[in-house]
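Researcher: Quick test of sequence recovery. Tokens follow.
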């Protein structure tokens, strides 16, 4: 038996007889519960009355528990169990059982009642147990195949509430909840703010989990998100972009994002200059994630930035109050800097990075990204003559930093520059504080070993006499 634990309750989720994917097969039938043997209970669990010759035991057809006639007196049809005639259902199952039965109706008002009722159960922690045990989750997902917004609105809010319970993720995904969410998002778009917000929030939960990100993508999660990034509704756009960031962590999605008909990268570059700093931060974060991919995609990003009027340079030159904006753009530039073919187009950004060093002194994360970017630029020999101008600032703000990653990146930068222009850079280092540079060399992990190995080739420890 596959018990799960939700909000402290031990739950045995309802099982579908046949395909568990009730979004594809909305006319599902549940596996009937096994009946609790008569002898196992001498009291009615609902009202505590003792069973006797006169107070007979009755089985609830929904949960299989033994109840007294008062607590199990109602008879209703249970199409979800394949039972069309009215059967006994106990008081603790009745509401959900009726809602599930209604969800299979063809009458619009019944569908609305069912969606609202089941959704309300999903949103109340105390009621989730009954909902999941009796198949209410499946009924909610099956309702997503209708088109009426009055039904879809409570459905998506219920699914969003259920998605907050990690223990339910497997069951939700297996039952087709992600497909249901994507279908609703694709069909309703941003015409209804509540539906879009609940839908993206639910999808976002699955995209956060490494296990379900791929499932969310296979179930069609990318397209509605790409489309909603263009929403004129700021809340929806921001949520969609941040969800896109989670999706883009999966490198396999980059071709679809770069080639999407929605011109996603130009849109993100545009949002990088949004008047809202949170939007700027999130758009730049997604761009930075997209810059971790292939050289071709980095090149596309650089080209899109040039075509968009060099948004990244404008961001780098700005002084936002949100410190994460500059960190994200510096991280992005650092990633782009490894592309040799784009060095010409990246010159402005390289200069922007070293001009930012002096104002980044106390901002350690930014300093680290800036130094990494400069170290990446230094690999390209033609950049060296420009970067030597940055040496005094690098020594002052980075090399002497007490933060190890900043120190390590500045060492990488200086060593690369030394390799390309030893005379010029060493004279600069002597005038700017060689001591710190030399002292730190010994502390670089593996550095001494590498020097030993290199020296050993030219100066072996054992030799034959001449
Ligand atoms: Zn009773
Ligand atoms: Zn029952």
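Model:
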């Amino acid at each position: 038996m596959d018990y799960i634990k939700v909000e402290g309750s031990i739950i045995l989720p309802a099982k579908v007889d046949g395909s568990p994917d009730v979004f594809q097969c909305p006319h599902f039938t549940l596996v009937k519960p096994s009946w609790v043997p008569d002898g196992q209970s001498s009291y009615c669990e609902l009202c505590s009355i003792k069973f006797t010759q006169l107070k007979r035991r009755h089985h609830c057809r929904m949960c299989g528990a033994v109840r007294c006639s008062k607590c199990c007196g109602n008879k209703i049809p249970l199409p979800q169990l394949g039972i069309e005639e009215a059967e006994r259902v106990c008081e603790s199952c009745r509401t959900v059982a009726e809602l599930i039965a209604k969800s299979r109706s063809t009458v619009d008002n019944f569908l609305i009642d069912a969606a609202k009722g089941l959704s309300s159960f999903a949103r109340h922690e105390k009621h989730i147990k009954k909902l999941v045990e009796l198949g209410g989750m499946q009924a909610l997902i099956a309702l997503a195949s209708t088109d009426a917004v009055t039904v879809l609105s409570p459905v998506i809010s219920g699914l969003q509430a259920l998605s907050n319970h990690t223990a339910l993720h497997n069951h939700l995904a297996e039952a087709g909840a992600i497909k249901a969410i994507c279908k609703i998002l694709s069909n309703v778009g941003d015409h209804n703010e509540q539906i879009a917000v609940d839908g993206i929030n639910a999808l976002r939960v699955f995209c956060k989990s490494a296990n379900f990100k791929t499932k969310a993508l296979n179930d069609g999660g990318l397209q509605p998100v790409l489309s909603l990034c263009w929403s004129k509704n700021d809340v929806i756009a921001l949520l969609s972009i941040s969800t896109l960031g989670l999706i883009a962590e999966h490198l396999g999605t980059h071709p679809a994002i770069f080639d999407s008909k929605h011109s996603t990268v130009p849109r993100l570059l545009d949002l990088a200059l949004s008047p809202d700093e949170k939007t700027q931060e999130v758009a730049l974060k997604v761009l930075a994630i997209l810059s971790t991919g292939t050289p071709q995609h980095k090149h596309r990003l650089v080209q899109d930035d040039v075509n968009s009027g060099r948004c990244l340079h404008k961001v780098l030159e700005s002084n936002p109050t949100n410190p994460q904006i500059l960190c994200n753009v510096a991280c992005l530039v650092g990633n782009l800097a490894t592309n040799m073919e784009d060095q010409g187009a990246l010159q402005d950004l390289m200069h922007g990075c070293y001009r930012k060093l002096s104002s980044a002194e106390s901002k350690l994360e930014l300093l680290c990204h800036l130094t990494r970017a400069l170290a990446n630029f230094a690999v390209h020999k033609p950049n060296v003559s420009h970067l030597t101008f940055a040496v005094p600032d690098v020594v002052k703000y980075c090399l002497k930093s007490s933060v190890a990653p900043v120190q390590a990146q500045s060492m990488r930068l200086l060593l690369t520059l030394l390799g390309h222009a030893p005379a010029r850079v060493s004279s600069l280092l002597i005038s700017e504080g060689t001591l710190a540079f030399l002292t730190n060399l010994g502390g670089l992990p593996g550095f001494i070993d590498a020097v030993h190995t290199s020296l050993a080739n030219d100066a072996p420890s054992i030799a034959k006499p001449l």
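Strands lie at 4-6, 9-11, 58-59, 66-67, 74-78, 83-89.
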